[in-house]
Every structure is written in structure tokens, then in C-alpha cells.
Design a protein that fits this description.
single chain, alpha/beta, Rossmann fold, Arc Repressor Mutant, subunit A, 2 domains, five-stranded parallel sheet, four-stranded antiparallel sheet, 19% strand
Length: 236
């Protein structure tokens, strides 16, 4: 593989076609339909480059760009349907690494991706944080970069999906995360409408992290809303 590319676009057809083209070219592709989910995913699965649409629902691409630069530090290429020169100027001034308008030739986009990745490799990576990727919640520690979970100083074996689900909850610790948000951020928007996969994985996480899985105190169900992860310290 030559890198992880994240596609952020609210059009499902564009996400699927770009993912296919990127994977055919040897990249690993992930996708999100909005900036909020993309940023949440990027914090647990760092992309090497983001293909970012400007006209997104909720947080638009111009605002999302500043968050990607600050929180992830990866290069960003704007992919936009509006052929407005102002968009390109503003986007590049805000720190985008390139700009391409829809409709575009896939070979041209792949060439732009390759060029930006080559330039970043030559100039060196963006900002990093020595403690980035470490989440400490009382007696539970999650290391995103090493994909390791420690509970009371003991390692906990997890599948990739269990780890991603736990980390997604941990990034919103103390706050409710809805079923739809979990599906979108962990499984992808293609799994929307299939909440049973969340229920099953939550049960598996509880079996590994709760003292009494039938009466959880760490991963709580908020009826009608979703789940939240609490920080719990071991008794002295």
C-alpha cells in the first residue's frame, strides 16, 4: 500500500467510485459523508491525505480544513463541484495543498494525489504530538498508534472493529454518541440502518471491560439516544 486516503463527500456515488479507483491504484481508502465524522475517524485512523469536498452539510469544507490541519496535520486536496475561482483562492490561502473541480478525470486526480504525497514526503510530515493517540480514562488506557488497550495495567485483546468502536466512544468520553454516529464513524455510512452490529459489539466490549457485563458502569446505554463511555478509576 502507498498510503491511506480519506474521502469526505456527501455524495455516496462519489465516495464509492473514488474509493474503488484509489484502491485499484494501491491506496487504502476510507470515507465519510460529513466533516464531523471524518474528523472523528481521522483521530483514530490517521490519513496520509484527505480529499475534501467544500459543500458539505453541517461544517463545510473550508471550516473543516482548519480542523484537519490543527488536529491531524495531513495534506488536504479540495474536491469541489462549484467552479468558483474564489473557492480555490480561499481554500489555498487557508492551507489546502491542492484544488480540483468536479467533474474530473480520475487519472488526473490520482496524479494530484501522488504529487502531494511525494511533496509531503520530501518536505517532511506535518505537526506531531508526542502524546497524540493516547487516551487515558481512569484505569483504561487506549493507544491508537499501537492499537493497544490496557485495563488496570493489563492488556485487553480486541478485534479491529472492537478497538475502533471503543476509541470512538473514548474520543467523546462522557458524552452520548448515537447509534447512527457509531455506524458512520466505525463501520461507514453504507451500514446505516443496521444497528444490530453496534449492539453486538457493545456487548463484546462490555464482556471485556466491565466487572459485571449485565450491569455496566463503564459503557452506559442512554435509552433512545445511544451510548457513552465513562472514566472509572480502580479502587485503592
Amino acid at each position: 500500500m502507498t498510503g491511506h486516503i480519506m474521502i469526505v463527500d456527501d455524495e455516496a456515488l462519489i465516495r464509492s467510485s473514488l474509493s474503488f479507483s484509489l484502491e485499484q491504484a494501491g491506496y487504502r481508502a476510507s470515507s465519510a459523508s460529513n466533516a464531523e465524522d471524518a474528523l472523528a475517524i481521522a483521530q483514530r485512523d490517521y490519513p496520509d491525505l484527505v480529499l475534501l469536498d467544500i459543500g458539505l452539510p453541517g461544517m463545510d469544507g473550508l471550516e473543516a480544513l482548519s480542523h484537519f490541519r490543527a488536529q491531524v496535520g495531513c495534506p488536504v486536496i479540495f474536491v469541489n463541484a462549484r467552479r468558483r475561482e474564489l473557492d480555490e483562492i480561499v481554500g489555498l490561502e487557508l492551507g489546502a495543498d491542492d484544488f480540483i473541480s468536479k467533474p474530473f478525470d480520475v487519472d488526473v486526480l490520482l496524479a494530484r494525489v501522488k504529487a502531494v504525497l511525494r511533496r509531503v514526503a520530501r518536505d517532511g510530515p506535518g505537526q506531531t504530538d508526542g502524546d497524540a493517540g493516547i487516551i487515558s480514562l481512569g484505569d483504561l488506557v487506549i493507544d491508537a498508534k499501537a492499537s493497544v488497550v490496557m485495563l488496570r495495567d493489563n492488556p485487553v485483546a480486541m478485534s479491529r472493529r472492537e478497538f475502533d468502536l471503543l476509541q470512538t466512544l473514548a474520543l467523546e468520553a462522557g458524552r452520548v454518541v448515537s447509534i447512527d454516529q457509531l455506524l458512520s464513524r466505525v463501520w461507514g455510512v453504507e451500514f446505516m440502518g443496521e444497528p444490530q452490529v453496534v449492539y453486538v459489539h457493545i456487548r463484546w466490549l462490555r464482556e471485556k471491560l466491565e466487572d459485571d457485563p449485565s450491569n455496566p458502569t463503564r459503557i452506559l446505554t442512554v435509552r433512545g439516544r445511544g451510548y457513552k463511555l465513562l472514566s472509572i478509576s480502580s479502587p485503592e
